[in-house]
Sequence to fold (304 residues):
Amino acid sequence: MQTTSMDSGRLTRLATYASVSVALILILVKLFGWWVTGSVSILASLLDSTLDVVASVMILFAVRLAQVPADSEHRFGHGKAEPLAALAQSVFIAGSAFYLLVYAVGRLINPEAIQQVPLGIWIMVFSMILTSGLVLFQRYVVRQTQSTAIKSDSLHYITDIAANALVALGLIVALWSFEWVDALLAIFIALFIGWSALKLAKESANQLLDIELPGEMREQIQQIILSHRGVEGFNDLRTYRSGPNMFIQVDLELDDRMPLVKAHRIAEEVTERIQEAFPQADVLIHQEPVSLRSDPEHHQWGVS
Fold:
């Protein structure tokens, strides 16, 4: 069952509210854990959760802006607010990773004993359970809405689960007085967070630069176009995503002798079929005589 624009907007907003709420709970729990144990790896996780709140609030506003309908000054809508916020989020994540790396190296050089280790372990287990629930909900929302912002937020929380597991493992090892493992894991987490930030920045930048939709989606669009009996072929298929919306442009090759009224009807029918498969697609179709296919100078930007 396809998700309507209204349902998509509601799900996306609900996901952002859940993200902010979970991040706030994790901050309070991990702040208590760091205060009690003095663990640098718990501090690393606390810093990451604090940035999650900043990033999630930013995503919340971006999602709301991206869902604002097109107006006279933004004819293609406000969808790029999502990848723009995701790009900003990657900068915050990278900054936190650098700070954490410096702090953890200092603790590795001058290790300190960890207090109340069992309590710290239980705090990290609770964090993993709560975060896992959020990620499952976010993945459902991404499947239904294809939201870039929620996808980026979910990817970051997935790394949080792995990071929390490492912190818990480090605390378990610390029971045998290997305090240096705590700092070493914090360094690993910092590097992992930094790598995630780079991947997120690349994906966001690609959307801002109007990269084509994935190959499997383009193949599906091509099959829909060619499945219409009145279509002789097509060329210049161009696609890109802008937040929750996608834009599809294509030239339909039709019989030279076809009446304009029939050509228009075929274009409308192809548009409807594409939008049935991609409900949030804005489709622009140009009709042209199939005889132009043999003109080598006609298609300046390549074919499908």
About this structure: Residues 300-304 have pLDDT under 50 and may be disordered. The beta strands are 233-242, 245-254, 281-289. The CA atoms of residues 13 and 60 lie 7 Å apart.
